[in-house]
Amino acid sequence: MSENWTTANIPGQHGRVAVVTGANTGLGYETAKALAERGASVVLAVRDVAKGKAAAARMTGDVTVQALDLTSLDSVRTAAAALRSRLGRIDLLINNAGVMYTPKRTTRDGFELQFGTNHLGHFALTGLLLDRMLPVPGSRVVTVSSTGHRIRAAIHFDDLHWQRSYGRAAAYGQSKLANLMFTYELQRRLAAHGTTIAVAAHPGLSSTELARNTPAAFRVPITWLAPLLAQTPAMGALPTLRAATDPATLGGQYYGPGGRRQIKGHPRLVTSSPASYEVAVQQRLWSVSEDLTGVTFPVIEPHRHPIPAGPATR
Predict the structure, then answer these.
(1) Using DSSP, how many helices (H) and how many strands (E) does the chain show?
(2) Among 142, 161, 247, 278, fewest CB within 10 Å belongs to which?
(3) Helix (H) or strand (E) holding 198
(4) Fold (CATH) for 13-293
């Protein structure tokens, strides 16, 4: 296994189709750009189509744009229908888009913004596109989480949308924990099909626009420290790209930077928090997510058995 994995390690992607959410800037842009350069046909699924087209114009290869607003289930359904009509297959679905530390707001469907965008929007999109992936050997659903999933590491079923009290960091942590639990439960359900796998990744600390909603009290120290601690978006995208393309990747694995505290560095297998591996909570979150989105998946419910914690997951 390469200790210094880079885009040079990405196998040729000719003939493969990739859908990348939030791909007009930051990590999503770098992910889509690298896949297109290696020959994939890439769809930038973005909220702002004009910015998406501008991003596509800066890339080399077969790159198109699809409107997608993850804060609206109507938009997710419309986007999924459009993608299904134009794509006979999907090899890679990369759930990258997200919001972080936003002030208290809700999506158009009344969900807390971070949970609704980061988890529920991607949950619905994946369920609506999965039948375009299941017949495709080697297809992958890659969902981008964060080390922030350890912040108050719990799914607050008694107040999922933080109506009683709101902490923007804790709400972000819940959404990123949900990303991991979704990945692990999805992999368990996919295992019987033997074609598609679910994998997760996180970028460490990267210099992107995602942190624009950081509270003012932390903005100054972050501004000063970021150049010393953070890595470029291109480096931050490497864990996602490895999860998406490394032939050795297995379902249920989690990639992150290999440096100290997973802040930066070349991608390697990492371990998520103990809470993220709680099967009963994963199952409950899945059921709640189906109820909230109205989306069910074309995969059977598996026998209950835990995914082992740690980078040696099989």
Answers:
(1) 10, 8
(2) 247
(3) strand 197-201
(4) Rossmann fold (3.40.50)
Helix residue spans in the chain (DSSP H): 26-37, 49-57, 73-86, 113-114, 122-129, 168-190, 216-229, 233-236, 238-245, 279-293
Residue type, 159: D
Please choose, from the candidates 179, 170, 120, the residue with its C-alpha nearest in 3D space to the C-alpha of residue 146: 179
User: 26 with 209: CB under 8 angstroms?
Assistant: yes
Coil, strand or helix at 182: helix
Q: Identify any residues that bridge with 112 across adjacent strands, giving them in sequence order.
A: 106
Question: What are the start-end ranges of the H helices in 130-210?
Answer: 168-190
Q: For the chain, 314 residues long, give each residue's pLDDT as a single digit of tens.
A: 567 999 999 999 999 999 999 999 999 999 999 999 999 999 999 999 999 999 999 999 999 999 999 999 999 999 999 999 999 999 999 999 999 999 999 999 999 999 999 999 999 999 999 999 999 999 999 999 998 998 877 999 999 999 999 999 999 999 999 999 999 999 999 998 899 999 999 998 875 554 554 555 444 444 444 555 679 999 999 999 999 999 999 999 999 997 777 788 899 999 999 999 999 999 999 999 999 999 999 987 775 544 444 443 32
Q: How is the chain split into domains, by residue range?
A: 13-293
Catalytic positions, please?
A: 172
| Rounded-to-integer distance, Cα 115 and Cα 118, Å | 5
Report residue 191: phi and psi, to 5°.
Answer: -55, -35
Pull the structure tokens for residue 44: 């930038």
State the pTM of this model: 0.90
Token pair 């942590």 in the structure block, residue: 173
